[in-house]
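quick one if you have a minute, typing this from the bus. below you get a single protein, a line of residues and a line of whole numbers that encode the local backbone shape. could you go over both lines and see whether the tokens make sense for that sequence. anything you notice is useful, everything is just below.
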Amino acid sequence: MGPGPAAGGRVCRDPGEPGQFRWIKVAGGLYLLYLGVSSFLKARKAAREGPAAEGRQQPLRYSCPAAYGSGLLSTLLNPKVGLFFLAVVPQFIPHGGNTLGMAMVLGLTLATIGFLYLAVIAVVAFKATQWLRRPKVNTIIERISSGILAVLGVGVMASGASS
């Protein structure tokens, strides 16, 4: 951990200097307010330009090998997968049996369940994406999320100013 995060952590934890923490809260509130207002303005501009402008924004396309490689790399670099396997699977391997064979069967079972689960998630995400890309739905979501960001920013600023 570098000196910046360590100093930031010290400022946030040190009750002896509440003024510093207050300024961090106010700055965070201003940033949230900025995000909310800029998001709202961008959504209004996009709504004014209409569907013709949206046609320029094509979603990124991935080939099947690229998507598989990305998922594989993400899984291999995620230590939680290996730790889960090491923590849970040994209790299901019988003593004195074929340890490697049983571990492979349990691993294959886990991979099959994971594949089926993620296939369902992919289908649901595809359907949700189609619904969310409707211009009216997109406009409503943009306005609501912009308003929430702006209100959170004002709340954090008020909290920081009063502490």
Remarks:
- The two ends are 29 Å apart (CA to CA).
- The helical segments are 3-13, 18-49, 51-54, 64-76, 79-88, 99-132, 135-162.
